[in-house]
Amino acid sequence: MGHEKGRGADMDDARAWDERLAWTYGLISKDPAERAVALDHLASARKATAEAAARFNSALLRLQEQGVENPYEVPALRSAWEERLRVGSRSLPDGVWYRFDHEDIASWPGLPYALLFLEWEARFPDEWTLTAKEWGTKELLIRHLAVDSIGRDPVARAKLIDLVEIVVRRAYRCKDREYVRIARVVDGPPLRVRLEAARRSENPWARLHAGYVLWLLDRPEVPNSRRVWRTWLADTQQ
Fold it and tell me: Can you tell me the distance from the alpha carbon of 45 to that of 92, in angstroms, rounded to the nearest whole number?
């Protein structure tokens, strides 16, 4: 409903994004106290989002029970939907959902917060899982970021190289395999030096994951499928 009308948060400028979500930088702070404050803020924001969603759903149900043929044309319901979007835009993961009308994600003013959401999951996976777990959003953002224009942006490129390294050095988490898309976009000496260091480390997960990513980078035509992964893994264990 809101997406089709282009009312998503991607229509705002960077200042508006910062006004809504600057507090989320506390989620990736090294200071546990700062993270605790941000997590409290997040809990309140998610509660407000859930309440706004419940109000919208209740309004929609009432109209459907009354037999209204086009409930989405009713001003009260449209107002409830817009309120749900407004409240959700100040929370995570809802705040990074609405980028579908933006032509180039590299110039999308919400890009820093999409990167932040992924960095939060990478650096503090337990806190992310407990408070804002959304595997579909993780997957969608990675896929949207795996484009050439992002690879040419120095700030985004550096952040994504960091994320690839973090991910290959840990035990596999849901949707981590999607980061191969990112690795192919930011491929180059800076990334390969880190991957090679991980491949030679004493960390068994790092050796395995980095070896697989390096193997795929040398074979851009090979799909990153489960079958390919299983075949590669079987070959390395022979």
Answer: 8
Contacts of residue 41, defined as CB under 8 A and 6 or more positions apart, other chains included, come to 23, 26
Residues 95/116, Cβ–Cβ less than 8 Å: no
Q: Report the distance separating Cα 35 and Cα 25, nearest Å.
A: 9
Average of pLDDT values for 143-150?
91
Dihedral-angle region of residue 67 (phi above 0 means left; psi in -120 to 50 means alpha; beta otherwise)? left
Residue for token pair 């260091």: 197
Start-to-end Cα distance in the chain:
53
Mean pLDDT over 220-226 rounds to: 95
Lookup: tokens for 223: 């799909």
CA atoms within 13 A on the CB side of 83: 16
For residue 140, report the phi and psi dihedrals to the nearest 5 degrees. -65, -45
Q: What sign does the CA torsion over 90, 38, 120, 147 have?
A: positive
Element holding 14 (H helix, E strand):
helix 14-21
Q: State pLDDT tens for residues 182-192.
A: 999 999 999 99
CB atoms within 10 A of CB 127: 19
Task: Return the domain boundaries, the chain.
Answer: 1-110, 146-238
| pLDDT (tens digit per residue) in 14-48 | 999 999 999 999 999 999 999 999 999 999 999 99
